[in-house]
Write a structure and sequence with these properties.
Elements (H helix, E strand, L loop, with lengths): L7 E10 L4 E6 L11 E4 L2 E9 L2 E6 L1 H6 L10 E5 L19 E11 L2 E7 L13 E4 L2 E4 L2 E2 L3 E6 L1 H6 L10 E6 L1 H12 L15
Antiparallel strand pairs: 1-2, 1-6, 2-5, 3-4, 3-6, 4-5, 7-8, 7-13, 8-12, 9-10, 9-13, 11-12
Length: 209
């Protein structure tokens, strides 16, 4: 379990193909604090540490993870968001995040508003029932709030601290990002489906604030 509060950044030092997937080697200040078997969220994807030493952190990425998440496009030199799992005695600063990516989104707009930044992110239609205005959404592992919502895109406003302490500071148009919707919302939608309720979304082109 994670919170979506990014702990630090890492840099992709190597992407090495394996028989079925690939192995990532990341350089990060956390490498000396990790051990084989530990969980580590990389851009919002929960991965297992294979080894960690002065050379970096090594993590295997399976074919299924490559299929459902945007890690497959990582290249040497890319910067990634890192977060270790939530400790039982820690404060919950963001929201409950599982590290299980629900879909891949795409950055469609980037615009400034004084010191703040707006991002518009497109999402696939299957996520629509799980997104609500002012609700939580995880973007590349970052806990953010849905500020505007349409049928296939949502807006988030990012504060200066988040821009400078996550990989969003390097974001570009058409970048693919990992999306994880709020866990509570998944259970609500599932319960509604089992009860035979019909879920309706916003009308085409409508954006709610």
């Amino acid at each position: 379990m994670f919170t979506g509060i990014i702990e630090t950044l890492g840099e992709v030092a190597e992407v090495k193909p394996t028989a079925a997937g690939f192995r990532l080697r990341l350089t990060t200040a956390l490498s000396q604090q990790l051990a084989p078997g530990d969980s580590l969220a990389v851009n919002g994807v929960c991965l297992t540490v294979v080894s960690a030493d002065a050379d970096g952190v090594h993590l295997d990425v399976s074919p299924e993870t490559t299929r459902v998440a945007a890690l497959g496009s990582l290249k040497r030199g890319n910067i990634v968001n890192l977060e270790r799992p939530l400790r039982a005695d820690s404060r919950l600063g963001g929201h409950f995040v599982q590290g299980h990516v629900d879909a891949i989104g795409q950055i469609e707009e980037l615009r400034d508003a004084a010191d703040f930044h707006w991002l518009t992110i497109g999402f696939p239609s299957q996520l629509a029932p799980f997104l609500v205005p002012k609700g939580s959404i995880t973007v590349d592992g970052i806990s953010l709030t849905v500020a505007g919502l349409g049928t296939d895109r949502f807006d988030v406003q990012v504060v200066p601290y988040t821009m400078s302490h996550t990989n969003l500071g390097r974001a570009e148009l058409r970048d693919r990002v990992n999306l994880e919707v709020d866990m509570v919302g998944k259970y609500v939608v599932r319960a509604a489906e089992l009860a035979g309720l019909t879920l309706t979304g916003v009308r085409p082109g409508e954006v709610t604030h």
